[in-house]
Amino acid sequence: MNQIDMSLIDWSRAQFALTAIVHWLFVPLTLGLGLIVCIMESIYVKTGAEKWLRTTKFWMKLFGINFAIGVATGIILEFEFGTNWSNYSWFVGDIFGAPLAIEGIVAFFLEATFIAVMFFGWDKVSKKFHLASTWLTVGGATLSALWILIANAWMQYPAGMSFNPDTVRSEMTDFWAVALSPVATNKFFHTVISSWTLGAAFVLGVSAWFLLKKRERTFSLDSIKIACIVGFVGVVCSWVTGDGSAHQVAQKQPMKLAAMEGLYEGGTGVDLLAMGVLTPGKQYGDSKDPFIFKIPVPIPNFLSYLANRQFDSYVPGINNLVNGGYDTPQGKALSIEEKIERGKLAIGALADYSRAKKANNEPAKVEAKKILDENFAHFGYGYLKSPADAIPNVPLVFYSFHIMVILGGFFLILFPVVWFYSKKDKISKMKWLQWICILSVPLAYVTSQAGWVVAEVGRQPWAIQDILPVNAAISNINAASVQLTFFVFLILFAVLITAELKIMFKQIKIGPENKDVKNEEKLS
Amino acid sequence: MDYSFYQHYWWLLVSVLGALLVFLLFVQGGQSLIYQLGKKEQDLQLLLGSIGKKWELTFTTLVTFGGAFFASFPLFYSTSFGGAYWVWMLILFSFVIQAVSYEYMHKKGNLLGSRTYKAFLFTNGLLAPILLGAAVSTLFYGAEFIVRKDNITDFGMPVISSWTNPLHGLEAVGNIMNVVLGLAIFFLSRCLGSLYFINNIDNKEIHQGARKQLLYNAIPFLVCFLLYVIVLLFKSGYTEDPVTKVISEEPYKYLHNLLAMPWLLAILLIGVVLVLFGFVKTYLQPKYIRGIWPAGIGVVLTVLVVLLIAGYNHTAYYPSLSDMQSSLTITNSCSSLFTLKAMSIVSIFIVPVLGYIAYVWRVMDKK
Q1: What is the distance between the alpha carbons of residues B313 and B330, in angstroms, rounded to a whole number?
Q2: Domain layout of chain B by residue ranges
Q3: Could you tell me the sign of the dihedral formed by the alpha carbons of B266, B269, B272, B277, in that order?
Q4: Chain B residues whose beta carbon lies within 8 Å of the beta carbon of residue A124
Q5: Closest-CA residue in chain B for A69?
Q6: Cβ B168–A481 below 8 Å, yes or no?
Q7: With an 8 Å Cβ cutoff, are B95 and A117 in contact?
Q8: What three-state secondary structure class fits B347?
């Protein structure tokens, strides 16, 4: 019997993760910086002040440098769904493909057209037309994000579908259930709004660098003020939507929540951890204490509240999820072992259905379909070899989650503090704060990437939650081919990122165009 | 409107996108001409500046073409992309280096130097049309794959589509006709690139050079294209029985398709005439600069017909050379009726979006 090469799965995952990580270095800056550029240009159009034109053009230049590589890495992801995850493409293409196509049809075209107006249209179209194009470019980028995030959310919470044994795939039955699922709406707002925070941190950091170098004071202070407002709104909304996301995770992906909290033994009235250090080598079912030390948040039972909106509610841990037996609104929870059995029953029933269909045996077909429907909720578990396969990498998810939350707290404080000190230009003399602002740029990227690590590593082993694990979503190619393309991508990305950073730093060093400096000085 | 209507509608949309993509390959054609037409630095900058404003449209159309194929015919996406791994990866690499080159080429501190980025653009101009042409040709000449949906119930190897050739797509060059179409698209893209430069750049030397290039590339294009079409019309193809769904070989399948759908034959003839008109008038009349429009419309119409005869009239648009019954048709590889319907509603937005894009470019090009 042929067997899937496990290293193929690992290399395919590595390649996809590499591309996604690199892609996500550029997308949040496009979304966040884009919004800030829109606001700046709007102020320019409203006031007519040349200093805002100069400010807009500078940030727009950096936006453009970042934009191209984001587009380039996006197409790689689209292709990789087919090249590396061909089974996935068929099994859920009926649902996943639709948002991807809509993204292309509407959003990409808007982006592609209006970005050209943004960069080449200053002297060719009216001020208002140009402003509209800037908003439409950023709107198009946000719409792109909307559709791909809907697709991603559907992988975490497969709503609005049913399995068709005749076509051997999941098929969409309710478009709005897919597009407006609570996971999708939360994910969209959380991802896009947190990107505003990243864009704001970027503007803050670059502006602080100008202040540190005693250059472009007016430009920097103006930019900082806008960045602080956008960043603060972004970070507050990110906390709200983050809470919503965590609640959805608790309901739909309890294993992910348990990994996020390093929670092995659940219970009622569970505390949320502020931080902790996990015991190395801890496995589910062993007697080791999961933590070397841990610090809970000062609100007691907060994890229970976060998960179920009740402080005394039950939150299952990894061991509970593996062993089952606890009470849920649907009855006693099944163990992973039982789910694997049911998954195998579902897969076996699908094989029986297919045989009955070929033999034209209608009663056998009906019987097989009945078994399949009864057990389909656990279909994907049938491909797992042991309960351990259902547990994601706990340390990676745990630390990523807490780093994201801690840094989220840092930004919640940073933006109002910087705004306060920039209001009367005290920040120009506060080197320490300027340095913090500069350091906040890489920290914003760490926060953003950590969020995606939680979302994507936390849902392992699932490509589609409970329905299709990664080992059944793969393409039938040899691992060596993927290894080779992985390293080609690695080299390509390393070169492109280095070039991008060099260009970006150079452009920042050059600063805003100087032909308008005199005007600016007059105005300021 | 039944399931069959939506299947045909989506094959039409995918074909339109494919046809637009081939037309927009004038960007790649232009890139492959930069060293020949841009011997002086000033000319080179003019050429790159001109196509540099349009590359995103080609890129976006490719992304949309891929997305639309994924959404409407997911079995093709999973079979071809997952199987012909190396062909798609090469196409991908060539487009990725293009995207960054335009942005980085003239920027200070771009690490690799502007020469390297120009070389990247040339590489994309060379590879993308040939590879895309060869990939499209497999819609007629087939590929080595097997589709077994029952495999999903095999715990050890649940993959539905498998490629049976270890070269994973590179074997396509073993079929001379795939190479011929690849070359035809390459030379066509250079003709379109020349026409685009003539229309978009007001420079006598570039016009003269581009007219020469038009002639040099139009001849091999016509040879390759005519050879391909003639052989195609006389070759057999796979056809699906609409009732039993059994696939069998049919001699002169593509000729039959044209005869069964004479409106396609008419469009094909109009397309070819428009292409020739654009080429010939531009070459013979030095003052005529708008040849890109008739030729472009002609290309879109011609490619549209070529793609439609690949999928319409119960034709297997992706013949399997390993197992005839695994061949893909628009009925056995498409999305569900619900999804096709939902996406069809969205597709209505294409017209106003395209209209607005055209308006914006008119405004941009006026000044």
Answers
A1: 10
A2: 3-335
A3: negative
A4: 363-364, 366-367
A5: B100
A6: yes
A7: no
A8: helix
Q: Which pLDDT score is estimated for B352? A: 77
In eight-state DSSP terms, residue A334 is: P
Mean pLDDT throughout B51-75? Answer: 88
Helix extents (H) in A84-159: 86-102, 109-120, 127-156
Q: Tell me the nearest-neighbour CA distance from B12 into chain A, angstroms.
A: 15
Closest CA to B182 of B143, B137, B226: B137
Low-confidence residues of chain A: pLDDT under 50: 1, 517-524
pLDDT in tens, A453-465: 999 999 999 999 9
pLDDT per position as a tens digit, A355-394: 999 999 999 999 999 999 999 999 999 999 999 999 999 9
Checking DSSP bridges between strand A169-172 and strand A161-164, what pairing results, if any? antiparallel
Mind giving me the DSSP string for A237-284?
Answer: HHHHHHHHHHHHHHHH-HHHHHHHHT-SS-EESPPPEEEEEEPTT--T
B339 contacts on A by Cβ (under 8 Å): 94-95, 97-98, 171-172
Q: How far is B304 from chain A (nearest CA, A)?
A: 18
Cβ under 8 Å to B: A residues 300-359: 344, 347-348, 350-351, 354
Least Cα separation, residue B281 to chain A (angstroms): 30
CB contact under 8 A, A116 and B100: no
Q: Cβ separation of A93 and B366 shorter than 8 Å?
A: no
Cβ within 8 Å of B, A 59-98 = 64-65, 67-69, 71-76, 78-79, 81-91, 93-98
Angle at B241 between CA B72 and CA B77, to 5 degrees: 25
Helix (H) or strand (E) holding B183: helix B176-200
Q: Give the C-alpha separation, A372 to A521, whole Å.
A: 74
How many angstroms separate the CA atoms of A496 and A26, rounded?
A: 12
What value of ipTM does the predicted structure carry?
A: 0.91
Dihedrals phi, psi of A180, to nearest 5 degrees: -115, 25
A493 inside 8 A of chain B by CB: no
For residue A461, whether the previous peptide bond is cis, meaning omega lies within 30 degrees of 0, is yes
pTM of the model: 0.92
Using pLDDT thresholds of 50, 70 and 90, give the confidence band for residue B367: low
CA-based nearest residue to A394, from A506, A279, A314: A279
Tokens encoding B223:
């040879």
Q: In B, which residues are within 8 Å of A371 by CB distance?
A: none
Nearest residue in B to A102, CA atom = B346
The CB density around residue A78, as the number of other CB atoms within 10 Å, is 22
